[in-house]
Amino acid sequence: QRILLETVYEAFESAGWSLDDVDGSKTSVHVGVMTGDYLLIQGRDPDTLGGHAATGLSRSILANRLSYAFNLQGASLAVDTACSSSLVALHLAVQGLQRGEATQAVVAGTNLLLDSAWYIMGSSMHMISPESRCRMWDKDANGYARGEGCAAVILKPLSQAIRDNDHIECIIRGSGVNSDGQADGSGITIPSPAAQTALIQQTYRDAGLDPLKDQCQYFECHGTGTQAGDAAEAQAIQDAFWDGKKEAQDQNVLL
Questions:
Q1: What pTM value is reported for the model?
Q2: 60 lies in a domain?
Q3: Does residue 5 lie in a domain region?
Q4: Within a 10 A sphere around the Cβ of 139, how many other Cβ atoms?
C-alpha cells in the first residue's frame, strides 16, 4: 500500500495535478494485483497479527487505500486475473470512463517478491525457468523469470484532456477481454491461439479498425518463455494481422 501511494502520487505529479485538483473528484481507482506475499508471511505467525492486519493485508484495500488517502470518490477495486491483472484493470477503467461513471481514472499494478511460495508453486508446474532467464520465442525456452515492480497511469476522456490542456502520453483506441473456456480442448493453464486471435480482432473492430488493413506497428506480448505460451501467442498474432495472406510475408511488426 505504501509503495502504491507513492507511485500514484508521482503519477499525479507527472500529470501536472496537485492533490487539491483530485480531492473529492469522481476519480475511479483500478489496481491490478496477483500475489500477496506479505499476507503469506504474516499468516505463518498469526500471533503477530495486529489490529490493522485486516486492512493492511487485504488486496481490496490496495485500491481502497488510494481512494481514501486522496479522497477519490469513483469506483475503487482491485483486479486479479493473474498475469493480465493490470491490463484488465485498465480495460475496466476505460469502460467506466466511457459510461460516464468517472471523470478520470487511476490505473495501477503492483507485484512484490517477498516469499518463496510462488517460486515453489510455479516451479512445480514447470512454469518458471530453472535458470531464472526468460528466453521468449527461443528454441531453448524453459519458463519465465519473475519480476517485481509498481506502476500507475492516469486516464481521462480525450476530449476532456484536450479541453483541460493536459499532457497526453498516448490515446487508447480500444480494449477487450475474453477467456479461452475449453477452446482447443486444452487445459486451464494452456493458452488458446484461436481465443487470442478472436480477442485481437474483436478489439480492433470495436475501435473502428481493421486488423488486416490497419497494420499494427508494435505489439507488446505476454512473452512467457514457455513452449506452449510462445507458440500460441505467435500463432495468434500471425492469424489476427495477416490471416495467412502471402502478400503480407514481407511486412514486419516489432515484437
A1: 0.91
A2: yes
A3: yes
A4: 6
Count of domains for the chain: 1
Convert the pLDDT of each residue in 21-51 to its tens digit. Answer: 999 999 999 999 999 898 888 888 888 888 8
The answer to whether the CB of 37 falls within 8 A of the CB of 77 is no
Percent of the chain with pLDDT over 90: 71
Residue 82: give its domain's CATH number: 3.40.47.10
Cα–Cα dist 156/162, whole Å: 10
Q: What is the C-alpha R_g of the chain? A: 20
Rounded to whole angstroms, how far apart are CA atoms 187 and 74? 38
How would you classify the pairing of strands 104-111 and 27-33?
A: parallel
Judge whether 192 lies within some domain.
no
The dihedral region occupied by 12, where left means phi > 0, alpha psi between -120 and 50, and beta the remainder, is: alpha
pLDDT band of 112, cuts 50, 70, 90? very high
Q: Note down the domain range covering 69.
A: 1-112+148-169
Query: What is the mean predicted confidence (pLDDT) over 137-156?
Result: 94
Examine residue 8 and state whether it is found in any structural domain, yes or no: yes
